[in-house]
Structure to design on (155 residues):
């Protein structure tokens, strides 16, 4: 395996790993708050579950970037392209926006979801407003996803 291919695979792995780690942290943070609400009022389960799941999307985005990168270098198709070191670095750099923004935005979204879960605990009729708050954090994960996709497909 060439250095270029190794660097490209490293980029794909970082996108999946870091975004996945961020999602697991964010979902875990929100899950603890959701469990507390459900203990007091089990009827709020579906509302707090939705808020808990929101930080999980970054892990999905990171996995998507990994699949796109691995597909573009031929790892998934079984016909691995020979990449120069520069091309491998390009793939690595293209995966980093999703890796790092995915990590941080998932954690921040989890924390924002905790606050929104608190809103639902006290005023369940405000669920729609409460959901918008963590959804705003998602915007930056989507932007990073787009940057990574555009960069990968243009290598």
């Amino acid at each position: 395996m060439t250095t270029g291919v190794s660097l490209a695979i490293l980029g794909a792995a970082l996108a999946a790993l870091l975004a996945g780690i961020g999602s697991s942290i964010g979902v875990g943070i929100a899950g603890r708050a959701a469990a507390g609400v459900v203990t007091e009022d089990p009827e709020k389960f579906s509302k707090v579950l939705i808020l808990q799941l929101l930080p999980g999307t970054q892990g999905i985005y990171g996995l998507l970037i990994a699949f796109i990168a691995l597909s573009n270098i031929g790892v998934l198709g079984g016909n691995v392209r020979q990449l120069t070191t520069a091309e491998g670095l390009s793939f690595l750099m293209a995966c980093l926006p999703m890796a790092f923004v995915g990590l941080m935005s998932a954690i921040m979204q989890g924390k924002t979801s905790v606050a929104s879960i608190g809103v639902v605990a006290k005023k369940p009729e405000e669920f729609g407003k409460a959901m918008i708050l963590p959804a705003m954090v998602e915007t930056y994960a989507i932007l990073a996803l787009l940057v990574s996709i555009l960069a990968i497909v243009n290598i």
User: Anything to note?
Assistant: The mean pLDDT is 97. The radius of gyration is 18 Å.
